[in-house]
Amino acid sequence: MTHTYQNKGVCSRSTTVTLSENGIIQEVSVVGGCNGNLKGICQLLQGMPAAEAIRRMEGTTCGPRATSCPDQIAKALKAALQEEGL
Predict the structure, then answer these.
(1) How many domains does the chain fold into?
(2) What is its EC number (predicted)?
(3) What's the domain range around 11?
């Protein structure tokens, strides 16, 4: 299932995640933000369990911000897992 999350507090605007029925990340895409870095992160996440990606990225900050694009991806993944009931 595909889910879109509106990012907050970062340069990127939104994150779209596609998960398999067992919570494995099939695809992640981010609109805005640091293009090359986010493309690389999105490629690294493919095939990873969403719970593991959340564990690794949640709480990451960017400069003085309390959040970051990876933290927003973790929030998007958490929301998607919740919507899927996983």
Answers:
(1) 1
(2) 1.17.4.1
(3) 2-84
